[in-house]
């Protein structure tokens, strides 16, 4: 599996537009969307439209088409309403996938996935949790002028049963079609030998632009260690990724932080109840 030791090149950068050109394209897309921005003003923000334009090489027609598909999905899934209390077994599941309280050295949001930790919920509920996290990362990326998320997966101890193929396919579909332009770099840490066969199955469903953002790193590889040290404060980075932080996730503090974020997103139970009791509230 020596090919995995090679870190991939940085994602091919799309030709940047000037701020004025970007804003004009955003307005052009908004015109193509008709009444949809009125229906979903929070989702169809400048930040969201900009992200879809990035991934469509600044084609307004393609971005508008992709956004319309995302709107259809959001009408059914209602991701903006998911809050911490909606996620069964979240105390355990959050340890498998969470947004830590540190950023990388360039100020990008970090998302951590511990694939080998056993899940006690269904695939459907894990997809729901993924969407919940994606909504939070999208909120963090609202004002970003480039991809803003460093996605880190620890594969030490991973087996084929850790990540069912259907779940992987569905997760990639949601990330690539409904939350494009979020991931700046995806770090796959310490994949075992058995991961090679799984990788061959899923590689073809990963879009080329996302494949270019993948970095395979190994704890016992000096080049991998250099990559991680260049990107992160090693005192904050989890030991699973070669950092010096051996503390486990404090689930009580994490729950408090996520509930505060739910309020900012307008997705907390309190906000929802307030809206129900005040139907005429703007």
UniProtKB/TrEMBL annotation:
UniProt-listed CDD domains: SEC14
Region named Disordered: 1-23, 263-282
Start-end of Polar residues biased regions: 273-282
Domain CRAL-TRIO: 86-249
InterPro entries, per the entry: CRAL-TRIO_dom, CRAL-TRIO_dom_sf, CRAL/TRIO_N_dom_sf, PI_Transfer_CRAL-TRIO
PANTHER family xrefs: GH16843P (PTHR45824), OS05G0267800 PROTEIN (PTHR45824:SF7)
SMART domains: SEC14
Domain of life: Eukaryota
Name assigned to this protein: CRAL-TRIO domain-containing protein
GO molecular function (one): phosphatidylinositol transfer activity
Organism (species): Digitaria exilis
């Amino acid at each position: 599996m020596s090919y995995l030791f090679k870190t991939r090149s940085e994602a091919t950068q799309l030709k940047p537009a000037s701020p004025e050109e970007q804003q004009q394209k955003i307005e052009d897309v908004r015109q193509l969307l008709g009444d949809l921005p009125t229906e979903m003003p929070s989702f169809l923000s400048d930040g969201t439209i900009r992200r879809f334009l990035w991934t469509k090489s600044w084609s307004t027609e393609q971005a508008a088409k992709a956004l319309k598909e995302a709107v259809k999905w959001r009408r059914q899934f209602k991701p903006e309403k998911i809050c911490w209390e909606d996620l069964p077994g979240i105390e355990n599941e959050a340890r498998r996938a969470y947004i830590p309280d540190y950023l990388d050295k360039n100020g990008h949001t970090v998302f951590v996935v511990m694939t080998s930790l056993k899940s006690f919920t269904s695939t459907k509920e894990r997809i729901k949790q993924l969407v919940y996290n994606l909504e939070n990362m999208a909120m963090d990326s609202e004002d970003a002028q480039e991809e803003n998320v460093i996605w880190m997966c620890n594969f030490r101890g991973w087996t084929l049963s850790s990540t069912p193929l259907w779940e992987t396919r569905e997760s990639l579909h949601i990330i690539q079609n409904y939350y494009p332009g979020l991931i700046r770099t995806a770090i796959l840490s310490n994949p075992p030998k058995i991961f090679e066969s799984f990788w061959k199955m899923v590689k073809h469903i990963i879009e080329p632009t996302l494949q270019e953002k993948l970095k395979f790193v190994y704890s016992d590889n000096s080049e991998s260690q250099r990559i991680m040290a260049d990107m992160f404060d090693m005192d904050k980075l989890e030991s699973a990724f070669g950092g010096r932080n051996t503390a486990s996730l404090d689930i009580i503090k994490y729950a408090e932080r996520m509930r505060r974020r739910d309020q900012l997103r307008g997705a907390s139970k309190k906000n929802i109840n307030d809206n129900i009791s005040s139907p005429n509230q703007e």
